[in-house]
Every structure is written in C-alpha cells, then in structure tokens.
Amino acid sequence: MKRHIILLGSVLCICALALAQIKEKITGNPGEKIPIAVPDFRGAGDAQNFMNTFNGTLWGELQNSGQLKMIPKTSYPLTIPQQPADFRPPLNGKSQGPWLSDWSGPPVNSHYLAFGYTATQNGQLVLYGWLYDVQQANPSSAQLLAKVYVGSPDEAGSKKIAQEFAADILKLFGAGSLMGTRIYFMSDRTGHKEIWSMNYDGSDQKQFTSYRTITTFPVVSADGTKIAFTTYPMRPASPGHPATEDQPKIYVHSLETGRKLVYLNQNASMNAASDFMPDNRHLLIYSTAAGSVSQIFMTDIDGGGFHRITNTRSLEVEAKANPKTGADIVFTSGRGGTPQIYRMNIDGTDVARLTSGEGDAVNPSWNPDGQHIAFAWTRGFEPGNFNIFIMDIASQELIQLTHGAGRNENPNWAPDGVHLVFSSKRGRSSQIFTMLADGTGLQQLTTQGNNEKPVWTKGTQ
Amino acid sequence: MSASDRLHASKIAAALLVLTIAVVAPGCKKKVPPPPPPPPTTAPASVPTVARAAINSFTAEPSTIEKGQSSTLSWSISNATDMSIDNGIGAVQSRGQRQVFPTSSTTYTLTANGPGGSDTRTVTVSVNTPPPPPPAAPTGPRLSSAETLQQQSQDAYFDYDKSDIRADARDALTRDAGLLKQIFTQDPNFTVVVEGHCDERGSAEYNLALGDRRASAAKDFLVQLGVAGDRIKTISYGKERPQCTEANEECWQKNRRAHLSAGQ
What we know:
The complex is a heterodimer.
Chain A: H1 2-27, E1 34-37, E2 42-44, H2 51-64, E3 68-70, H3 100-104, E4 112-121, E5 124-133, H4 139-142, E6 143-151, H5 155-172, E7 182-187, E8 194-199, E9 206-207, E10 215-220, E11 226-231, E12 234-235, E13 244-245, E14 249-254, E15 260-261, E16 271-276, E17 282-287, E18 295-300, E19 307-308, E20 316-321, E21 328-333, E22 340-345, E23 352-353, E24 361-366, E25 372-377, E26 387-392, E27 397-400, E28 407-413, E29 419-425, E30 430-436, E31 443-444, E32 451-457
Parallel strand pairs in A: 1-3, 1-4, 2-4
Antiparallel strand pairs in A: 4-5, 5-6, 7-8, 7-32, 8-9, 10-11, 11-14, 12-13, 14-15, 16-17, 17-18, 18-19, 20-21, 21-22, 22-23, 24-25, 25-26, 26-27, 28-29, 29-30, 30-31
Helix pairs in contact in A: 2-5
Chain B: H1 3-24, E1 54-61, E2 64-66, E3 71-78, E4 82-85, E5 90-91, E6 95-100, E7 106-114, E8 117-128, H2 145-152, E9 156-157, H3 167-186, E10 192-197, H4 204-224, E11 232-238, H5 249-255, E12 257-262
Parallel strand pairs in B: 2-8, 10-11
Antiparallel strand pairs in B: 1-3, 3-6, 4-5, 4-7, 7-8, 9-12, 10-12
Helix pairs in contact in B: 2-3, 3-4
C-alpha cells in the first residue's frame, strides 16, 4: 500500500513539473528538463535486425517531445539492464551487476531509465519495455511502467512499437504524445491544389480531395469528424467558353465518410472557411456577403444562422476561436493599415491589436491551452519574408522561432501544445516542417510539389 | 323439323355446350372442342355493281431528298375515268411516273374518280434544307467578343497591399470601359469577369480578400464610366494564379492587377 502511495505521489509530482515546463517552454524560460537515460535496446535473434530503427525512433520520439533531457549514451555504464531481474544490489560496496545508483549517480545523473529488449515471438516482433525512477532505493519501488508491445517483424513494426513505448513514457510525464495525430494540408503535387493528410511524422501521405481546381485553407473540427476548406468550383465548358473557376466557396466534408456535407454559401464574390467553433457545430468564415469587403461572420455547420461579427471597411480574415473557451477570437485585420493580429470577443466587442503594427502579421493559431498563439510576421524583414512567432496573449510576451531561413507561414499547434507545424519556402518550393515551440527539433515532412496550410489534428486515435 | 323445334334443339345444344365447357374446362383446356361455326350470314341480294375506282399504288422514290434533288412519283390506278395529282401536276394516266422537284417538303394527293366511286391517296416527299452557309468572309479577320476582350483590354495595376485605382490604372480602365461598352452593344449576351490578383508576398488568406477588393474597385470604376454593372462579375484569385513567378518587383507588379476575362 505504501509503495502505491509513493508511486502515485511521484507521478503527480512529475505531471505538475511537466506542465510548468510546457509553459516555460512556450514563454521562453526553459527550466530544467526531466533527465532520462535511454540505452540502446537489443533484440534476441532476428529481432536484432530491426534495432537500429527501433532505437533511433525511441530516442527521436522522446527527444522531440521537448520535455526530456536526453542524457548522452557515452556516459552510460558498461552493463545495461535488459529486464528487472538483471538488477543486482552491490555487495559490500562492490558492484554485482546493474543497479539503480549506476544511473542516478555521476556521471549519468539521470532521474529516469528506459530499458528492455525485443524478440520475435509467434511471427511477431515483441518489445518488453520498462521505465524506472532510478532515484528510488530499490527496483520494487522504481517501476513506473512495465508493458509488452507487439508489432510486425519488420522496420515498420519496430518503428511502431518504439513510438507506442515512447508515447506511454511521455504520457506518464504529462507530455501529450503525437501518436495517432494527423496533419491536413494543401498540396499541389498532382498539378492542382488539393487537400491531403499525413501522419505527424510525414508518413502515410494521402490525397483527400480531387476537385481539380484550386482547393485550399483546410480547417478541422475539434472532434475530428469534419473538415472545411475553400475551393473554386469548376464551371463546365459551354459553347464558346472553356471551363473556368467560379468564385471561391466553402465546402464541408465528413472525415468519417469523406463525403461532402450540405453547406449553404452566402451569395457573395468570396466565401472562405476560417475555423470551426470548439462546439463543432458552428463555423467562422470570412466573406464579402452583404456587399462588403471581406468581413468575419459565423454560421451554423450547414451555412444557416449566418451572422456578422466584424463591421468595418477594412479587410478582416482568418478568425480563429479560442479552443478552450470559444469566447474570444484572434484574427487578421487591415484596419490599422497593414495586416496585423487582433483579438476580440466572440460578439465582435473589445477589439485589441496584439502585434505592434510593424510589417505584416498574419496566420494566427491558438495553442490548445487557449492562452498562447503562434503567427507569422515580417517584423524586421522585407515584405513577404515571414517568420514564426509565439505570443502569450495575457502579457503579449513574444518569442521568435524562425529567423529568416526561408519564408515561414501558417504555424499550427500540435494537440500536445508544444509542437508546431508550419510551411516554409526554403528553396524553390514550399514544404511542411514541424518543430518544438522553442524553435528546435526541426523536421521536414513533405518533399513533393508545394505543400502549405498545415492543420495538426488529434486524428481518429 | 319446325322452326320452334329447331330453336328448341339449338337451345338444348347450347345448354349442352355450356355444360360441357363448364365440366371440362377447369381441368383440361386442351379437350375443349372447337366452337361450332357461326351460322351462315344471309346472302346479300345480288345487285349488279359498277367497280369502284381504286388506287393500287402511289409512291415517291426516294421519299426524302436534299433540296435541289428530284423524286419520282409512281402510281397505278384501276377502274377510274378521271385521275389527277395536285401541286400543279394535273391529270394523269392510270399508270405512270412523274419526276418532281419540290423545294420544301410536299404532300402530293392522287385523286381517282370513276362511275363506281372515287379513291385518294397521298405521298409526302421530305426535303432536307441544308444549314445556311456562313456569312461572306469579312475583309479582315473578325474576332469574337472574348478574343476582342483578351487582345484589347488592359490590366489595371496596384500598389503593394493597396486597392486604390492609380493614375495608370485609371487610364487603362477608362479604355477598358469604352471597349466593354462597344462589346456589350454588339454582343447582348456577353458578360465580363474582373479578376483580382496579388503578388506572392502577402499571406494567401489576406490576399484572397485583397484580390477581391481590387476586382471590386476596378468594377466600381468601370460602372462609374457607364458600363453595365449587372454584366460584370468579380472573382479574387488572391495569389493563386500569378502571371509571373519570379521574386522581384517587376514580376510582383505584374501580379498586382485587375484583369478582364470573358464571363459565362
């Protein structure tokens, strides 16, 4: 009983610590990260063939979480435990085998140790994985995680079990895992701008739309059941007239069936999808309805219940609802001259500019915490040369995450609140990258054609 | 056998027949005996008759011709004393052929009269009228309204992040207004689309709105110059359809434009 209380206590403590660190990370004061040692796992027999992939994936996933201090492998003891039975307490101050203090003491100075091994069993690749709190006095109180994972006996299977094990470790630290999350984006690799989706690591890239016109600006509902985007419906050719695009309109599709759902567009020269409200039942749009220039409106999920939120003579676009409360909106407005980021209440009141007025500030995206945003800004650079920034809305404190490498746009937060996906034109084409909210851990996910407007969703899980 | 006996006998026979059908029919259709033949009709009084005029045949070969071609009418009539075909052909013999050259589909009626009565028959020759030839070629190449617009309209250019009509855009749109009025008069069904475009530097989302405002500003200017507003539609392409893809001011300026294209 006592052991359970101690264990529970240590987990709670870890969670509280992790939350503080996420906030610190976002606000720019990285504190002490949680130290963890992750020695290379070995595989029995044929399983060893896949261990390079396994160890690379496990290390990468834990490191890319941004929550852990990965202790370099060069400082590890020579004898690595592979299972709990390998731990041997020292006898009379003399080592009898692996022991907790080997890892908690110098030179390793870790707090946690992930260990285990793989083997092929019944044609499957099986991982036996453990996580120990090595600051505990003995192995019986050190165990935080002991679990068996099964995958196919190949590279893909070894990657999968490594990702699942890493996800369980991260969950224990209160750091959301990215496993199962999916990124929707626009790609022109077929020759037309269409909506595509992929896993958080760039794998499994799939085409979602085939409208063969211009289809872009995807947004996904919080419950993951619906996607809205903006498309130029094709008008078929008629005698004397080639097929041409009609004015841009909002389309809503089910992500469960892939089918187009009913959405009644306003009779306007322009209708664009902006965001789903957190209730999954309303859409924010920007439209030239009522003969205005582009303004922000809200509609029901089928286009009914249309009502106006902004009422200016300036361009108002990209309204994004606070995912925590649904009570406030950040958006891009040209009311002060150049486009800048503003916030307002959901009814359009209490408008406040968040950016200084310098350059162009666009593409706001809420952190799932409802307190921070990411956006793209040309401050300090020529027009068009955007960099990614994050801001604590309450204090308006800023962190700049990219610094002039290419043009960086459309940041969008991962469900874990510490990763960002964005598009960057660093050569001749735009590609999609992910990074941590401190600008580290940059990974390129796409290579074919131009890929932009990423939206990171929880996925179907 | 008296008449009443005959009637009686036939009643019995009829009753027996009904009975037989009732008994036999449900189980075995094949065995139903053939019904008795109907009683002979009363022979008509043999009145001497005069044979009625009869048209045995009246055809047109071919029955469908192209305008300018001919068709041949053929007929055969018996017992007639007086035979004629309308449409200017007049009296004919009891057997004959006649070539006709109708310029449009024509129905010919053959009438045959004789002492015993008359007969008529019609035949129709259908004439296909070819489509009219194109109008005589004009001296110079004649452009469609869409081609005229494409070749003669001028783009209106804008400053970065602006939708104000500059002096040079004012000149271009003034010429465009004259061109549109001329096209609209000549081609009453023609409509025009004002496309709004932006350079690549703003965000795609903001540029969608900016392109819309540029197109709208250009349209408003044209309408002020008297061009029919209900025949002008606007569309914003934002930065989705750049005319030029290099990253320099010359190219960016080419993309910051309002462009006229034919509507549908």
